[in-house]
Amino acid sequence: MADKIDVPTINFKKIVEDAGIPTTEAGWSALFKQDVEAEGGIINNDSPFSPFWRLISRIITKPAVWVINQVLIAKILPNMFLLTATDDDFIEAKAWEHDLTRKSNEFAKGKVRFYRAASAGPSLLIPAATVVQTDAINGTVYRVLTVDDVILPQNSLSVLVPVIAQNAGAAYNLAAGYYHILPESVTGIGKVSNEAEWLDVLGADSETNDELKLRTRNAFTAAAPWHIDAVYRAIITEQAGLDADNVYFEHDAPRGPGTANTYILLDTGEPSAELLANLNTYVMAKGFHGHGDDMLILAMPALPVDIGLTVYPQPYLLADEVATLLADVEQFIRSAFRENTDYSTTRTEPFIRFSFSRLGQELHRQFAGLESLNWHQTDITSANNVPRLSTLNIENGNA
Fold first, then answer.
1. Do 61 and 22 touch, CB atoms closer than 8 A?
2. Is the dihedral of CA 384, 389, 390, 396 positive or negative?
3. What whole-number distance in Å separates Cα of residue 262 and Cα of residue 239?
4. Following CA atoms 273, 391, 107, 204 in sequence, which dihedral angle do they give, to the nearest 10 degrees?
5. Among 221, 148, 140, 217, residue whose Cα is nearest residue 178
6. In the chain, how many H helices and how many E strands?
7. What is the C-alpha to C-alpha distance for residues 367 and 135, in angstroms, rounded to an integer?
8. What pairing do the DSSP bridges indicate for beta strands 353-354 and 380-381?
9. Which of 49, 97, 229, 297 registers the highest number of CB atoms within 10 A of its CB?
């Protein structure tokens, strides 16, 4: 399993003080007096009310204390170490030392299926820039646009049409069925939907400092050029939309001696066959694998689960407020099962217990209109797979 960043607390002020460098005005005044006396100077009036010492405090001790505390302790020392660095430029300089650069944002690209309204009929034109959108998710509507003019052949019931996200970002990597609305009708088309493996290029946000730090830390362990997980993790996560903590390895020669599998997990949605083929080609056919290595990149297997929940809204809510609440609760749960990223929630992962009591706590924190929740199932335990929704049934307990 990929390691996650665990940042311990480091007391840089104590480090500086242990080195004998004062961090207070009193300390600098004492140090100055000691140096003056060591040079043979005689100070008769070192009272805090002495005009001389007040002048010294202003022109020597105050600037020294500011430089030590605000520059050395707060800025320079933390940014000398990848663990505690917070400044963009320092982190990117550390990454550059390992031949890494911050990954930029990326537009999601894939294919959406358009269905004919009738059972048969003539060829139909699906124009370029046709918009397909989602319902509102936590107040946001996501849109993809068709890339080129595409013809639905005569009597064919459906056709896959290449699309690109309206904006860059990982939030557009939505699960199956989210893109299903045509805001402007297309002649002869009855419905539209994205399928489970619709993504060819992952949408991605510009790499955050924590994500870049994690990749750079991985590069420290990738000193040897062959045969180790860190090298393959570094190679794979060069691709947009893939994070170091979403890459898992299976050893023990799953396909015979010299073989290993890599499983990738997306924050939302599932990788398409084309995306996996591109990654496998990148690793195995372009010279990035070890001598004699046989590495196969696969999607993390899914564990289909049926989820049921009875929601008891607060009794003071109006009917339309209850309907909105139930819809929002559904999207929140779908976010936990990696279908969207519009809510901050604990997401399903391999090798862990997924706790419905924790999910319930998060729902209560998110929605004040909830009085009580009654889950219809127990916690989920998974091995080398990730729980994904098969069905989701939400009932109104006050109905």
1. no
2. positive
3. 14
4. -90
5. 140
6. 11, 16
7. 19
8. antiparallel
9. 297
Token code pair at residue 69: 């505390």
Q: What is the pLDDT of residue 29?
A: 77
Check: CB of residue 214 under 8 Å from CB of residue 243: yes
Confidence category of residue 168, pLDDT binned at 50, 70, 90 = very high
The residues with which 379 forms a beta bridge, in sequence order, are none
**pLDDT one-digit tens code per residue, 177-210:** 999 999 999 999 999 999 988 999 999 888 889 8
Question: How far is residue 395 from each of residues 233, 318, 374, measured CA to CA in Å?
Answer: 43, 16, 10
Handedness of CA 174, 176, 181, 185 (dihedral sign): positive
248 by Cβ neighbours in 10 Å (0-12 / 13-18 / 19+) ranks as: buried
Asked if residues 327 and 394 have their Cβ atoms less than 8 Å apart, the reply is no
> Token match 């989602």: residue?
134
First to last CA, the chain: 44
CA 261 to CA 302: how far, in whole Å?
A: 16
* Among candidate residues 183, 193, 169, the one with its CA nearest the CA of residue 340: 169
Strands in the chain per DSSP E: 109-116, 124-126, 131-133, 143-146, 150-152, 158-165, 189-193, 199-201, 247-250, 259-264, 294-299, 302-313, 353-354, 370-375, 380-381, 386-396
The Cα 357–Cα 363 span in angstroms is: 10
Question: Beta partners for 113?
Answer: 160, 193
151 three-state secondary structure: strand
- Helix%, strand%, coil% for the chain, nearest 5: 30, 25, 45
